[in-house]
Amino acid sequence: MSQALRVGLAGLGTVGGAVFRLLSEKAGMLAARAGRPIAVTAVCARDRMRDRGLDLGTVTWYGDPVAMARDADIDIFVEVMGGGDGPAAAAVEAALAAGRSVVTANKALLATRGVALARLAEASGATIGYEAAVAGGIPIIKTLREAVVGNRVSRVYGILNGTCNYILTRMEEGLSFQECLADAQRLGYAEADPTFDIEGHDSAHKLAILAALAFGTEIDTASIHLEGISSITPADLSAAEELGYRIKLLGVARRTESGIEQRVTPTMVPLVSAMAGIHGVLNAVAVDGDEVGEIMLVGPGAGGTATASAVVGDIVDIARGGPRPATFGQPAQTLTPYRAARMRAHEGGYYIRLSVFDRPGAFAAIARRMAEQSISLESIMQKDGHDRDGSDVRARRVILITHETTEAQIRRALDAIQEDGQIEGRPQMIRIEKP
Amino acid sequence: MSQALRVGLAGLGTVGGAVFRLLSEKAGMLAARAGRPIAVTAVCARDRMRDRGLDLGTVTWYGDPVAMARDADIDIFVEVMGGGDGPAAAAVEAALAAGRSVVTANKALLATRGVALARLAEASGATIGYEAAVAGGIPIIKTLREAVVGNRVSRVYGILNGTCNYILTRMEEGLSFQECLADAQRLGYAEADPTFDIEGHDSAHKLAILAALAFGTEIDTASIHLEGISSITPADLSAAEELGYRIKLLGVARRTESGIEQRVTPTMVPLVSAMAGIHGVLNAVAVDGDEVGEIMLVGPGAGGTATASAVVGDIVDIARGGPRPATFGQPAQTLTPYRAARMRAHEGGYYIRLSVFDRPGAFAAIARRMAEQSISLESIMQKDGHDRDGSDVRARRVILITHETTEAQIRRALDAIQEDGQIEGRPQMIRIEKP
């Protein structure tokens, strides 16, 4: 059997601890599968004294990850410290510059510096494994980079944030957003400050990485159109279900004629679609390829052991030896500059919820505004009585599902309806995405 | 860029034609992704004169696949002829013996001779890619062999036959098995003789391959417990739904203390599980790993282009160069002999449907037989009136869902109930599988 692969592990938190334990407990199994032993020979963390329940007896300790990346006797640098900037970035750059391959779980790092790191890796002959950075234990990077390599991908989309999917799943029981968020916080699914998750930033990081890989473009996280889930009400969820849909926070990246569309928004998916069947903290990612059709991967998007499983998969790929695929599936210099599709050019169906004043002509005025923009309606649902969400008793809830139209047309119609003064408050607008 | 990878393609039917077209039309894209050109330099099919709409001008034609595997100037032998025996097997063996790597879509070949082929490949330094052999375009082989390599897998299961899933999905509309089968035949989803699909043999081939890979054992297709879907009635489907379940034809392979359990049977899955949300001709495979938890892959299980996508993924993996994982994830000589768990030792919940004669004491007798076997019931549903399926008007349909018990206990209870003479016909028994 060949020489052992020497691993330097930077970060000994939940994920790092799980990686260390997995590599030691399953050393025999992994050696058989990889064709050579894999051994952690160096670790790096801030506090050397803390008891982590790990037997670190034989490994070399580093306080500075950059020093470990540059100087340690290691073949591969595993970064599970986190943070898009600062020591994690500096250490990964140092490792790649030294020709050492990197495995990282750091989505912020990839989303902000992915292409620069890919160039650095290619210049020095190193490779970057980042399966753990997107959707935890789901092998979506391997699927895009290796399995569907014979496809031109037209769309990649999915449920990329388990916190939001948990909240939306619970809201289907009729609970409010605030109640479900509090619940998610109590269970440890949501942070004390949940903004990063519920406003879609976490999903956006992952989507930007997937889009680069799927379409062979440079990464552009900043151009992602973002809408969070805090405006979704139980009334939206129940109306959606009545009309044959379910609401999910989806990240969607699509190749269009005018460029790449990237958005993270609450989205309606057909109840009969597999995506609608993803409940709770699970993640799911679907890929549309011109040869394979649509394939979807489902699994835990977070958690120490699920993330460690992905990290170890990348380590074993490198341990087996031989060339690995380029970071984003093709040489970094061949990635095309990112060209954003204008969000107003988005095409699709829409769900519209309006609180319409209960007076003669109100509905006719709304229908006219839709017709002026050539928007045709798939279904109309009007509920008697006042709005459960606390709107005025004089207003009735009207739900419209449109046939395919453009974002520009919908926005013009809704602006005109708002100006007409026939509705209370702002219209709710949710895009529809079909498999 | 390195030298071109020379491909010999044996079989020019639906899949072979799609592979040929994909490799020529996307030659530039594939070369960028693989790091070298990929060119079909030899093909083999029976009828040279047939117009397949392919430009075969520059390739060398062979009538005999064994001759091509042995003699042609190729680096890799792609077998999409089909058939577990005969020319396909002989040609694959010849290619491997000559040290040429093989990519195949042939599940019958793998299920009957997989381990022998793996030994042959290892002896000559060749590798075998067979992503296309199981669940078409779904990258389940790559997932098991590479992505979850840090896991000990406890279970792999799924919907492995699109024909059966289409029939069961349609039956949920209240149609009979025979009506839905006729429909599937009209649409080209089912063969004129559908036995191989509906009795579970096709799923069994795929399950046997997955089990070997998941558990590191030799393949044993013959020991798979098989039950087809022809005994399932619309009444079973609607009762299942009322009780919170859906019926799928599942292939399930599970590691138990007494050995490996492998079965292909109609199975109830919870309505809220992602597996229940797989409708129509789709396939889905779930893997339970001790680190990652459960991940599931969904997609088209058949079709020329989906299968070609998987074949080309394998070709590109080989084109990139370097060592590939062993055929079944670890060296063939380390695979353990298959040890079958006894089906009677199966543990799980059960759905039981009985036509109970409408007379005093009948239900009490049934309940006593369950109690004698220490079987406790999760739910009991009795419908008034006669059985829609045409049983006697004096009999009432009784549905039982049991808590976890063993197959031996259930069989003893059902045998005793049958002997008591309180029921009409045979009991229907369907196993429950939870995520």
Automatic annotation (TrEMBL), chains A, B:
Biological pathway: Amino-acid biosynthesis; L-threonine biosynthesis; L-threonine from L-aspartate: step 3/5; Amino-acid biosynthesis; L-methionine biosynthesis via de novo pathway; L-homoserine from L-aspartate: step 3/3
Binding site for NADP(+): A10, G11, L12, G13, T14, V15, G16, G17
An individual GO BP term: methionine biosynthetic process
UniProt-recorded name of the protein: Homoserine dehydrogenase
InterPro entries per the UniProt record, alphabetical: ACT-like_dom_sf (IPR045865), ACT_dom (IPR002912), Asp/hSer_DH_NAD-bd (IPR005106), HDH (IPR016204), HDH_cat (IPR001342), HDH_CS (IPR019811), NAD(P)-bd_dom_sf (IPR036291)
Gene3D superfamilies recorded: 3.30.70.260, Dihydrodipicolinate Reductase, domain 2, NAD(P)-binding Rossmann-like Domain
Keyword list, A-Z: Amino-acid biosynthesis, Methionine biosynthesis, NADP, Oxidoreductase, Threonine biosynthesis
Entry's family note: Belongs to the homoserine dehydrogenase family.
Record-listed L-homoserine binding positions: E191
Organism in which the protein naturally occurs: Tepidamorphus gemmatus
Keyword Disulfide bond among record annotations: no
EC number from the UniProt entry: 1.1.1.3
Residues annotated to bind NADPH: K107
CDD domains per record: ACT_HSDH-Hom
Domain ACT: 351-428
Molecular function GO labels: homoserine dehydrogenase activity; NADP binding
